[in-house]
């Protein structure tokens, strides 16, 4: 089977989808771990405490977001 060149539509489609997925992952992580001033950090920490959200759960969520691949959408 011949290899596809960069100019064939399937290559472009796959490349564009991979770039869009990477952009979505970066944006999502940026939302999850957005910069916060000290007072906002305290407020967020209080909310997580009251809701019972642990640091381990937050890290698991980050790991799941970062390990997202196109296979997760099929």
Overview of the structural elements:
This protein is mainly alpha-helical. 68% of the residues lie in helices and 0% in strands. It has helices at residues 9-32, 38-51, 55-66. The two termini are 25 Å apart. The relative contact order is 0.11. The mean pLDDT is 86.
Number of helices: 3
From the structure provided, what is the oligomeric state, counting identical versus distinct chains?
Answer: single chain
Helix content: 55-70%
Q: How far apart lie the N and C ends? A: 25 Å
**Largest beta sheet, briefly?**
none
Strand content: under 5%
* C-alpha Rg (nearest Å): 18 Å
The stretches of 5 or more residues where confidence is low (pLDDT under 50) are none
Give the rounded overall mean pLDDT. Answer: 86
Number of strands: 0
Shape descriptor: elongated
**H/E element string?**
HHH
Report the structural category: mainly alpha
Task: Produce the secondary structure layout.
Blueprint: H1 9-32, H2 38-51, H3 55-66
Short structural summary:
With 74 residues, the chain is mostly helical.
Q: Which features characterize this protein?
A:
single chain; 0% strand; elongated
């Amino acid at each position: 089977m011949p290899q596809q060149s960069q100019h064939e539509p399937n290559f472009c489609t796959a490349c564009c989808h991979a770039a869009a997925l990477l952009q979505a992952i970066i944006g999502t992580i940026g939302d999850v771990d957005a910069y916060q001033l000290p007072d906002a950090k305290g407020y967020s920490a209080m909310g997580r405490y009251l809701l019972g959200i642990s640091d381990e759960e937050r890290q698991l969520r980050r790991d799941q977001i970062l390990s997202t691949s196109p296979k997760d959408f099929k």
